[in-house]
Amino acid sequence: MHLRLLDKYVLKELLYPFIFGVASFSSIFIASSLLFKIVQYITTYGAPIPVVARLFFYSLPEIVNYTFPMAVLLATLMAFGKLSSNSEIVAMKSGGVSYYRIVAPVIAVGFVVSIFSVIWAEKVVPPSKHIAKQILAVEIRGNVKPKTQDHVVVKTLSGDTQRITYARTFDESTGVMSKVTIEEFQKEKLTRVQTAKKATWKDDSWILEDGNVFTVDEKDGVTSKAAFRKQVIPLNITPREISWEQKSINEMTLGELRGYVKVLERQKLPTSDLWTEIFMRFAIPLASLVFALLGAPLGTQRQRSGSSIGMGISVIVIFVYYGIMAFTTGLGKGGVIPPLLAAMLPNIICFVAGIFMLKRADY
After folding, report:
1. Which end of the chain is more exposed for a tag (fewer CB within 10 A), N or C?
2. How far are the Cα atoms of 19, 36, 39, 55, 312 from residue 31, in angstroms, in the given order?
3. CA pair distance 169, 156, nearest whole angstrom
């Protein structure tokens, strides 16, 4: 069998199970959680159907993102289960094709899906989650009550000057931010830092009280310091707008997360949960690659059996994988183990298991 023809054949066997996997696992997620919530929004809050439909649409990208690795695993199990039960793998190996060469197209698919998942998780999921959150809060629940929030971050851009305003606490009802730090950047270089006990919204302006201004140079550090009692800051955003602009960790892009980490690190605050989330943005997509590596030998069977067993095996593997992930990420966010290890440990375990099983399958 010509190698290029072999690749096309294996990829064809993977295509339809992969599409089926994305659709079936997405349906399970939708039926088990999202559908129940949507019905609740209609019955409890009287949400209009068009609004609920928009919420459903913007909730889908996150669900689909989780199904990519699952679909790769299911597709690999079903494809190799079929090839094995029909003795096609034996025929290929009899024709001089090594088992590793047969598996190569699957590994390539896992790698491509992993790269696509990283882009999907960065460009599509965070903005869609933020919009879904706003639809739920504003259009369905009508949540307009004042809020008190911790660790508020507001980014503004004026010409070449970027300002990051950080407040330890923020109370929308009183329009007060406490323990405020404002960092100013010129062409991504920190040039000035302002700190104050609080900032108050008054007469359509934010007024800093009891603070200091530091001029900063990259080489020399702090070059000057000046104290002030009151000072208006160029922050053209109302307390209500600050509340709506705040994003949860899983609504932020990688760039926003890294910026948030830098702000908290300068405040000497813990960042283990943020670093764990950053590494998870790569760990979950990478699962597509390790699942491809693991699924091929699992699907290769010596005995004839239907490929329907693939669904059952994939559910078990997925359950174990996400069980380990829940445990390790909890440890990582709590600072018990390094965030990188916490995010990658499930993939490392699956990778080692996949390599071991590949060697055993290459008989």
Report:
1. C
2. 18, 7, 11, 15, 19
3. 19
Q: Which residue has the tokens 């088990």?
A: 32
Closest by CA to 234, choosing from 209, 214, 207, 262, is 207
Residue 236 burial (C-beta neighbours within 10 Å; 0-12, 13-18, 19+): exposed
> Which candidate, 118, 121, 86, places its Cα nearest to that of 13?
86
Question: How many angstroms separate the most distant Cα atoms in the chain?
Answer: 85
Per DSSP, the three-state class of 312 is: helix
Cα distances from 129 to residues 54, 55, 58, 123, in angstroms, run: 12, 9, 7, 11
Burial state string for 331-348 with b = 16 or more CB within 10 A and e = fewer than 16:
bbbeeebbbeebbbbbbe
| DSSP letter string, 210-222 | EEEEEEEETTTEE
Distance CA 217, CA 349 (A): 46
- Record the tokens describing residue 3, joined without a space: 């190698």
Written as one letter, the residue type at 327 is: F
pLDDT tens by residue, the chain, 363 residues: 455 777 788 888 888 889 988 998 888 888 888 888 888 888 888 888 899 999 999 999 989 998 999 999 988 888 888 887 777 887 887 778 888 888 889 999 999 999 999 999 989 998 898 888 888 877 887 765 556 777 788 877 666 677 888 888 888 778 899 998 888 888 778 888 888 999 998 888 889 999 899 888 777 777 888 888 888 887 777 777 676 666 777 778 888 788 778 777 776 778 898 899 999 999 999 999 999 998 888 888 654 444 456 667 778 888 899 899 999 999 998 889 999 999 999 999 999 998 888 888 766
Beta bridge partners of 194: 182, 213
